[in-house]
Specification:
Elements (H helix, E strand, L loop, with lengths): L1 H58 L3 H18 L6 H14 L3 E7 L3 E2 L4 E11 L1 H12 L5 E11 L2 E12 L3
Antiparallel strand pairs: 1-3, 2-3, 3-5, 4-5
């Protein structure tokens, strides 16, 4: 009888230890492993951020020169898409480029300014009379100008030696 009771106590101790081990494994060890994985992933993210900053710094060791380069690029971007529409300046540019290429500028009709949220656009219809080579030279000289614009459509009607062309283009600005 003492032997049976000793076996029951021994079995109870073994079961209690097994239960304690399972509880420890589930609530302490597994939770700790999850926390370790989470912290390891955060560490990897931080190391990746540090590596990006180091790569940036390695690519731009002279920050003063880099700042000047950025300011230069920003001023060129502002010239291409100015704060105001400055349609008079653009129409002047069209007229000057047409004169340079000996093109007859027969009409310029600005449309209504359209608000796109971050920027504004102004459609402009330009009518010119020229030959093929003058048209190409005119478009290339416009493309080289500082102002950004988009040619949406070109309609060409041949009238013998010359052509009548209608250019539908849009100019842009960040403000009205």
């Amino acid at each position: 009888m003492i032997q049976i009771q000793g076996k029951k106590i021994f079995l109870l101790i073994v079961c209690s230890l097994a239960l304690l081990y399972m509880l420890f494994f589930d609530f302490v060890y597994c939770a700790q492993q999850e926390e370790i994985k989470l912290r390891y992933s955060r560490l990897q993210e931080q190391q990746a951020k540090i590596l990006r900053v180091k790569d940036f710094m390695g690519g731009h060791p002279d920050m003063v020169l880099y700042k000047e380069e950025l300011e230069s690029q920003l001023s060129r971007a502002s010239a291409k898409i100015p704060d105001s529409m400055a349609q008079g300046e653009f129409l002047s540019l069209l007229q000057n480029k047409a004169l340079e290429e000996n093109i007859v500028l027969s009409g310029i009709v600005p449309g209504k300014t359209q608000d796109h949220g971050d920027f504004f656009s102004l459609p402009v219809e330009v009518a010119i009379q020229c030959n093929y080579f003058q048209l190409i030279a005119f478009l290339q000289s416009l493309e080289k100008s500082e102002r950004f614009f988009f040619i949406d459509n070109v309609i060409v009607h041949s009238t013998g030696e010359s052509m009548e062309c209608k250019l539908h283009l849009e100019i842009y600005a960040t403000g009205s």
